[in-house]
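Many groups now describe folds with learned vocabularies. In that spirit, our science desk offers one protein's residues alongside their backbone shape tokens.
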Amino acid sequence: MKRFQELLMKDLGWKLLSVAIAATLWFMVISINQPIDTRTYSTTLQITGEETLTARGLTIANLQDLEGTKISIKVKAQRTALDRLSQRQADLITASIDVSGLSYVQSGDQVTLPIDVQVGNGASGYTVESKVPGTAEVWVETLSSKEFPVEVVLNGELPQETTLSDPYLSSETVMVRGAQSAVNRVVAVRVSVNATEAAEQGEISVRPIAYDREGNTVTDVTFSADSVTVSYRLHEEKQIPIQISVVGTPASGYHVGEITYSPNSITVIGTAEDLRNLTLLSLGEIDVTDATSTVSQSFLLTDFLPEGVALQTGSSRTVQVLVHMEQGAEKTVFVSKDQITLQNTVDGYQYILPDTISVTISGETAALNETGGTDCSGTVDVGGLEAGAHTVTVDWTMPDGISVQESVLTVEVRADAGTDGEEMAE
């Protein structure tokens, strides 16, 4: 072992010098006469000249398939040149087809075009040994477009006690464009929004996706907008009652009975500002004029909600209202003559009324039970009556919910100059 070390170290300087000279000579030989080698590279097919087809209302039906085609290229060159090519493959190797010369094609034609390969970006010393595939099939179709509404799909669950507004879209519709066969397959355009991200961010930019009738994506089309911004506002909830308005007078002998409707209240969502002054939801009027049976009417709640306020998700959107008509019970009450007001009296006449007047009234039983003659009043027009007995009509004023049949009474008119026509109530 010791002898080996001595031999290794003997004349070490000369030995190192010899190695350096040998390496230098090797590099000089390589630089003067490099060996030729071949390597295989791969790149994606590019399409040029599409504007020629577009100008004629045509397009490439299998464009996405062509753009996804991988081209295998075998290149021969000096080894150092191939090394540079490997380092900058994306910049120095292209494979393309040019469709600008297809001015003669029609919709439905299929054309085979050679694939043009460029290596080295114009630099010499590269030879393309082979390319696979060497040609590409181009399918030409009529260029078509159609406008679709953008549907928002909210995926996932919202955080607890979080409610979102209806989505606001930067574009309510998008134009779908592509080969006619592809556009015809599209039945809907949707954007998918994550519920958690919507609650946290409030505004999300998402890519539209086209779907066919079976729910499959249609990929070989483009859109007028690459993305759609979907905005949400966080909402609060509030429960408010529903108010029903009834107008008109039922047929004679009938009155409005129980009013039933469901739901009696609703839960709405909106911003705190939008909900602050909303205390009830008043629906449209229900006319019961001349009604003798139950009046039914349906209301769409959303028609009466103010802007910015919506129904809670899952709530019923309609309310059915039933206004029941009841045939009134009857009762006879007695009204004192002091509760009758005479209009258009004439000086020099006395107007004598009965001490009491019987009146038949009708209405709900509860209202009738609370009504007596003391809370009724009437008015009689005696204008133009001469001396003598006259039958006149009384215009009655009754409590709410009480109606009265036409009523008359007898007024005796006496001429009495001595009393100066003072009205009497004997």
Summary: Residues 12-32 form the longest helix (21 residues). Confidence is low (pLDDT under 50) at residues 419-426. Residues 198 and 204 are 7 Å apart (CA to CA).
